[in-house]
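To illustrate the input format used throughout this study, we show a single complete record. The first block contains the structure-token representation of the backbone; no residue identities are included at this stage. The design step must infer an amino acid for every position from geometry alone.
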């Protein structure tokens, strides 16, 4: 999955906005103001990568399953994974991880917001 495809998918999720809250080179995706994805631009040293919220047991499973998935970079490593977008993780799996991250953030919202966003998503 390319960074552009990831950004497009993330922005299709209800209530999602993006900005460069942490400065240039890192696009932050938020649902109702709460961060669920941080997309870091590629550098000469490494490909693009995305940091996503994840249920802790699933986070460990994904790290075991894919070498390109590791503990979250500069976030709580128990609840976040960083995925290197080097094409070794299939695009459908990355989309599922983005969706799961959005779901995790939405599940912690007020009931009214949670229900509205879930209905919008379908």
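Output of the design step:
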């Amino acid at each position: 999955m390319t960074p552009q495809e990831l950004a497009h998918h993330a922005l299709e999720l209800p209530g999602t906005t993006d900005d460069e809250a942490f400065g240039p080179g890192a696009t932050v995706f938020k649902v109702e103001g709460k961060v669920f994805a941080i997309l870091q631009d590629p550098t000469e040293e490494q490909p693009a990568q995305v940091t996503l919220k994840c249920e802790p047991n699933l986070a460990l499973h994904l790290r075991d399953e894919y070498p390109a998935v590791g503990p979250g970079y500069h976030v709580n490593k128990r609840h976040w994974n960083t995925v290197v977008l080097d094409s070794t993780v299939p695009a459908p799996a990355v989309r599922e991880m983005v969706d799961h991250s959005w779901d995790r953030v939405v599940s912690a919202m007020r009931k009214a917001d949670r229900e509205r966003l879930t209905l919008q998503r379908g």
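Structural context for interpreting the output: Residues 5 and 91 are 9 Å apart (CA to CA). The helical segments are 3-12, 56-65, 91-107, 111-121.
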